[in-house]
Amino acid sequence: MTVTTESELLYPLTLFWQRDGHALPSYEVLDGEAVPEPYRRLLVHNGDMTSRLEAFWRGEIVLEVLHREHTPDAYRREVVLHIEETDLPVEYGAIEIDLSAFDGELRRLILEQHLPLGGLLNRFKIHYRSEPRGFIKLGADAVMQRVFRLPEAREFYGRSNVLLGENDRPLARIVEVLRPAEVPSS
Terminus-to-terminus CA distance in the chain, angstroms? Predict the structure, then answer.
Protein backbone atom coordinates (compact mmCIF):
# COMPACT_ATOMS: atom_id res chain seq x y z
CA MET A 1 0.00 0.00 0.00
CA THR A 2 1.49 3.35 -1.00
CA VAL A 3 0.95 6.33 1.26
CA THR A 4 1.28 9.70 -0.40
CA THR A 5 0.60 12.29 2.29
CA GLU A 6 1.79 12.97 5.83
CA SER A 7 -1.78 13.08 7.09
CA GLU A 8 -2.46 9.64 5.59
CA LEU A 9 0.79 8.10 6.86
CA LEU A 10 0.53 9.46 10.41
CA TYR A 11 -3.25 9.14 10.80
CA PRO A 12 -4.70 8.77 13.45
CA LEU A 13 -1.70 10.13 15.41
CA THR A 14 -2.16 13.49 13.68
CA LEU A 15 -5.73 13.67 14.91
CA PHE A 16 -4.78 13.34 18.59
CA TRP A 17 -1.71 15.55 18.42
CA GLN A 18 -3.49 18.38 16.59
CA ARG A 19 -6.36 18.21 19.07
CA ASP A 20 -3.91 18.48 21.98
CA GLY A 21 -1.94 21.30 20.32
CA HIS A 22 1.27 19.25 19.98
CA ALA A 23 3.51 19.84 17.01
CA LEU A 24 4.43 16.62 15.25
CA PRO A 25 8.03 15.60 15.82
CA SER A 26 10.40 15.63 12.89
CA TYR A 27 10.32 12.29 11.13
CA GLU A 28 11.81 10.39 8.26
CA VAL A 29 10.07 7.67 6.25
CA LEU A 30 12.24 4.55 5.96
CA ASP A 31 12.21 1.41 3.85
CA GLY A 32 11.86 -1.71 5.98
CA GLU A 33 15.46 -2.70 5.21
CA ALA A 34 16.69 0.63 6.61
CA VAL A 35 15.07 0.07 10.01
CA PRO A 36 17.85 -0.97 12.42
CA GLU A 37 17.65 -3.99 14.70
CA PRO A 38 15.98 -4.81 17.00
CA TYR A 39 13.28 -2.49 15.64
CA ARG A 40 13.25 -4.25 12.26
CA ARG A 41 12.18 -7.59 13.76
CA LEU A 42 9.58 -5.82 15.92
CA LEU A 43 8.12 -3.64 13.15
CA VAL A 44 8.83 -5.04 9.68
CA HIS A 45 6.37 -7.93 9.35
CA ASN A 46 2.76 -8.72 8.48
CA GLY A 47 1.96 -10.41 11.78
CA ASP A 48 0.99 -9.61 15.29
CA MET A 49 2.74 -6.82 17.21
CA THR A 50 1.43 -7.71 20.67
CA SER A 51 3.04 -11.16 20.81
CA ARG A 52 6.33 -9.80 19.42
CA LEU A 53 6.45 -7.15 22.13
CA GLU A 54 5.58 -9.69 24.82
CA ALA A 55 8.38 -12.01 23.65
CA PHE A 56 10.95 -9.19 23.35
CA TRP A 57 10.13 -7.57 26.70
CA ARG A 58 9.32 -10.92 28.38
CA GLY A 59 5.96 -10.09 29.86
CA GLU A 60 2.23 -9.73 29.30
CA ILE A 61 1.01 -6.51 27.69
CA VAL A 62 -1.72 -4.31 29.18
CA LEU A 63 -3.25 -1.14 27.84
CA GLU A 64 -3.29 2.39 29.25
CA VAL A 65 -5.72 4.68 27.43
CA LEU A 66 -4.56 8.30 27.27
CA HIS A 67 -7.50 9.58 25.22
CA ARG A 68 -10.43 8.08 23.39
CA GLU A 69 -13.28 9.18 21.21
CA HIS A 70 -16.22 7.24 19.96
CA THR A 71 -18.13 8.56 16.96
CA PRO A 72 -20.84 6.83 14.92
CA ASP A 73 -18.16 6.01 12.33
CA ALA A 74 -15.18 4.94 14.43
CA TYR A 75 -13.64 4.28 17.79
CA ARG A 76 -10.29 6.00 18.26
CA ARG A 77 -7.89 5.83 21.15
CA GLU A 78 -4.42 7.00 22.03
CA VAL A 79 -2.70 4.36 24.13
CA VAL A 80 0.47 3.19 25.81
CA LEU A 81 1.19 -0.52 26.02
CA HIS A 82 2.91 -1.56 29.25
CA ILE A 83 4.47 -4.76 30.50
CA GLU A 84 2.00 -5.75 33.19
CA GLU A 85 4.50 -7.01 35.78
CA THR A 86 6.87 -4.01 35.63
CA ASP A 87 4.61 -1.22 34.25
CA LEU A 88 7.35 -0.50 31.67
CA PRO A 89 5.86 1.48 28.73
CA VAL A 90 6.96 -0.30 25.54
CA GLU A 91 4.73 1.13 22.79
CA TYR A 92 2.80 4.30 22.12
CA GLY A 93 -0.08 3.94 19.71
CA ALA A 94 -2.83 5.90 18.05
CA ILE A 95 -5.51 3.61 16.65
CA GLU A 96 -8.81 3.90 14.83
CA ILE A 97 -10.90 0.73 15.10
CA ASP A 98 -13.87 -0.09 12.87
CA LEU A 99 -16.25 -1.34 15.55
CA SER A 100 -18.75 -2.50 12.93
CA ALA A 101 -16.30 -5.33 12.19
CA PHE A 102 -16.79 -6.75 15.70
CA ASP A 103 -19.73 -7.79 17.83
CA GLY A 104 -20.61 -9.53 21.06
CA GLU A 105 -17.93 -10.24 23.64
CA LEU A 106 -15.03 -9.12 21.43
CA ARG A 107 -16.58 -5.71 20.87
CA ARG A 108 -17.29 -5.40 24.61
CA LEU A 109 -13.66 -6.24 25.44
CA ILE A 110 -12.34 -3.72 22.90
CA LEU A 111 -14.44 -1.02 24.58
CA GLU A 112 -13.37 -2.26 28.03
CA GLN A 113 -9.87 -0.98 27.15
CA HIS A 114 -7.70 -3.37 29.16
CA LEU A 115 -6.01 -5.40 26.42
CA PRO A 116 -4.60 -4.30 23.04
CA LEU A 117 -6.59 -5.08 19.91
CA GLY A 118 -3.98 -7.55 18.59
CA GLY A 119 -4.09 -9.57 21.79
CA LEU A 120 -7.89 -9.72 21.65
CA LEU A 121 -7.90 -10.76 18.00
CA ASN A 122 -5.46 -13.56 18.86
CA ARG A 123 -7.53 -14.67 21.86
CA PHE A 124 -10.69 -14.86 19.72
CA LYS A 125 -8.79 -16.55 16.86
CA ILE A 126 -9.75 -13.82 14.39
CA HIS A 127 -7.70 -14.19 11.20
CA TYR A 128 -6.02 -10.91 10.30
CA ARG A 129 -2.77 -9.53 8.97
CA SER A 130 -0.78 -6.35 9.29
CA GLU A 131 -0.25 -4.28 6.18
CA PRO A 132 2.42 -1.68 7.08
CA ARG A 133 1.92 1.62 5.24
CA GLY A 134 5.39 2.89 6.10
CA PHE A 135 8.16 2.82 8.66
CA ILE A 136 9.21 5.97 10.47
CA LYS A 137 12.11 7.33 12.46
CA LEU A 138 10.90 10.11 14.75
CA GLY A 139 13.23 12.81 15.98
CA ALA A 140 13.73 13.47 19.67
CA ASP A 141 10.41 14.57 21.14
CA ALA A 142 9.36 15.71 24.62
CA VAL A 143 5.90 14.09 24.37
CA MET A 144 7.38 10.68 23.57
CA GLN A 145 10.04 11.22 26.24
CA ARG A 146 7.25 11.64 28.83
CA VAL A 147 5.19 8.72 27.49
CA PHE A 148 8.15 6.36 27.80
CA ARG A 149 9.42 7.96 31.05
CA LEU A 150 12.88 8.59 29.63
CA PRO A 151 15.39 10.93 31.30
CA GLU A 152 16.33 12.56 27.98
CA ALA A 153 14.81 13.00 24.55
CA ARG A 154 15.65 10.21 22.11
CA GLU A 155 14.94 9.09 18.56
CA PHE A 156 12.11 6.62 18.12
CA TYR A 157 11.16 4.04 15.50
CA GLY A 158 7.66 3.09 14.51
CA ARG A 159 5.31 2.19 11.75
CA SER A 160 2.04 3.16 10.19
CA ASN A 161 -0.08 0.04 9.88
CA VAL A 162 -3.48 -1.27 8.81
CA LEU A 163 -4.97 -4.46 10.24
CA LEU A 164 -6.92 -6.34 7.60
CA GLY A 165 -9.44 -9.10 8.27
CA GLU A 166 -11.25 -11.50 5.97
CA ASN A 167 -11.65 -10.31 2.38
CA ASP A 168 -9.11 -7.56 3.19
CA ARG A 169 -11.63 -5.68 5.30
CA PRO A 170 -9.86 -2.88 7.22
CA LEU A 171 -10.24 -3.54 10.94
CA ALA A 172 -8.00 -0.76 12.26
CA ARG A 173 -5.47 1.91 11.29
CA ILE A 174 -2.60 2.39 13.69
CA VAL A 175 0.55 4.40 14.22
CA GLU A 176 2.84 2.43 16.55
CA VAL A 177 5.97 3.93 18.13
CA LEU A 178 8.36 1.76 20.10
CA ARG A 179 10.29 2.47 23.27
CA PRO A 180 14.01 2.88 22.54
CA ALA A 181 15.46 -0.61 22.67
CA GLU A 182 17.28 -1.74 25.73
CA VAL A 183 18.24 -5.30 26.40
CA PRO A 184 15.49 -6.67 28.64
CA SER A 185 16.80 -7.95 31.95
CA SER A 186 17.02 -11.72 32.31
Answer: 38
